[in-house]
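Deliverable D2.4 — example input (structure tokens):
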């Protein structure tokens, strides 16, 4: 998140992420990095009135007001499993704001959330859906 700001491209963010990880001593050709996909600096797709807006993700320099999904995908073919971790990012004049920073990330938190009634379940119970 610290690399996102107005005036930088997603491709430049991608290079900064790689440099950061290498400086931390990670070998990007091994382990989890072989299965992770960080397309264009994590800029997956625009987000506005629709979760998946048409037109793909940001191209060119990021500008204040742009909202997109920062998505990282790990595919574990031996387990027939794929995991996507996504945040919704707003580019501001001073950097960015993670609009989904408080979403659950740990397995236990996610499972607890999934046990709660969703809006669809509530509407069905009230016979409004």
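Example output (designed residues):
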């Amino acid at each position: 998140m610290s690399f996102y700001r107005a005036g930088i491209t997603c491709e430049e963010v991608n290079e900064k992420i790689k440099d950061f990880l290498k400086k931390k001593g990670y070998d990007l050709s091994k382990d989890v990095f072989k299965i992770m996909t960080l397309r264009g600096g994590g800029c997956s797709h625009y987000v506005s009135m629709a979760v998946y807006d048409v037109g793909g993700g940001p191209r060119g320099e990021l500008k204040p007001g742009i909202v997109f999904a920062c998505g990282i995908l790990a595919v574990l073919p031996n387990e027939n499993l794929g995991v996507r971790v996504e945040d919704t990012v707003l580019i501001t004049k001073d950097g960015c704001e993670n609009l989904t920073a408080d979403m659950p990330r740990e397995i236990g938190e996610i499972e607890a959330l999934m046990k709660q009634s969703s809006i669809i379940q509530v509407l069905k119970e009230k016979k409004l859906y």
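The two ends are 38 Å apart (CA to CA).
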